[in-house]
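Checklist before submission:
- one chain only
- standard amino acids only
- sequence pasted in full

Submission:
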Amino acid sequence: MNMLITDKKELRRYATDQRIWQGIPSIEVTKKGRIFVTFYAGGIMEHIGNYCMLVESRDGFQYSEPIAATYLADHRCYDPCLWIDPLGRLWFTWAVCPDDGLWGVICDDPDADELVWSKEFFIGHDIMMNKPVVLSTGEWLFPLAVWNHGVRSLPPKYDSKTPEKGSFVYKTNDNGVTFSRLGGADVPNRSFDEHMVVELTDGRLMMLVRTYYGIGVSYSSDRGRTWSRGEDSGLGGPSSRFHICRLRSGRLLLINHVDFNKRNNLMLLLSEDDGRTWPWRLMLDARDAVSYPDAKEAEDGYIYITHDRERGCKKKSLQQAQSYAREILVSRVTEEDILQGELVNQGSYLGRIASKLGKYRGEDPNPFGDPHLFSDKEYAAHLLKTESGEARVNRIFEHYSPRCDEQHQADVDRVDQLIARLAEREYADPVLLLAVVTAIRELSGTCEPKHPTVERITAWVDQRLTDELSLADMAAHFRMSRYYLCHLFKEKTGITILEYRNERRLTLAKQKLIAGEEKVTDIALSCGFGSASYFNEIFSKSEGMTPSAYRKLHSK
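Returned file contents:
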């Protein structure tokens, strides 16, 4: 599929100043101490257009710009993972959506001056963001998940097409030449799975799975073919990725949020009894918005950890995104540091920056579609591309509110006439849409925005409940476009002005029906319904009974 990019000129598109946000890292360290970190970014959030990057450091202080990236047009490449297998080869894997699957490349010599990558190859369906595990019996197990729900920032058409959902494991007995899917766990209320597997001292496999209540757990006694019913592990967590692995000492290392109120208090924990207790702890990062740890125990005895902080993803504007840290961090500790609860080794450190974003200088000068940065023509073209039907006009009103008390009626009438003509053409005529954009923009800039509040509008309608006022009458009173008046009212209340007036008329009518013996016909006219028959129709539709039945039901 030709997703891997290593050409230096092409990699310039993925440089630090081309990215708005970044996160979800993974880390590996070679025998000679070369540190590799991968993470992903692209666009303004997790959606089509995402890409993965690989950076390196040879001294643990300075990290490179991307030395490799993965990208596929009209797809997203995401959730990358790094793993050095027992043969010393570096695996670089990433998920692809749509055409869901896990893809990878292998570098036989990750300490070489020039990295040479294999051809891309397919591993399985759908996603793996955590490291494989090597069992004592020689198999390599890859934790691949098929999510039981989609990504909220993507339309449903991008949901996985793989029918069976679960937290699966894929086995390879031939060093990654072929893969076969074994069983999977179905942990209740799991969230993006993000599962990891460790082998326990009694030979069972323990799978931990991200859930909405923290971390779920499932066990396998047959090397991953079948899994027990999922249950709460009791480890807790804010529904975020964790990390667990067996260290060479035999202890289990867990990285998880502890005593959290958000994604804060990211902690390193050690267990000597296969996870039944975790008595040793070292705070990795107590700040807010720290998440997604990954770790590697290196040949030099250090444990290298990466995590992200304040990704800057899915913000409302470029300025807001750039106010976040958007950091990929690397720490280095020893088991002794964790046992002591503080850094006692001179070579240990916490939270060294591997990548930090600054000012965005990407190719798209307006990545968030800020309407104020568009010309009229650019904005009209943007609306044709991103909105449909009446939503195009509503979006203009949201961005450019013509709310001035001093507007001239002729200008207001012109806007309404243009919108009416545009509506006749199903809001799709580019020339008319451009004219509407220009007219509304001009109207919004004529004076300070002293618009009538919804409270003023409702109070005015309440005083005239029995009057047969049209929308045009109401708009004329407030010297507003009637289209904008309708947009403003519904945006703030969730109902139209006419629905509000009918509801107020019904409320008044109910009060009169209960209060006395006034005739139903008189109530209908006094509440503005025009006739008893129309009143009876509206009332019955709203309440499920006639006005007379309502009066009888509520009579004392």
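Reviewer check: Confidence is low (pLDDT under 50) at residues 446-451.
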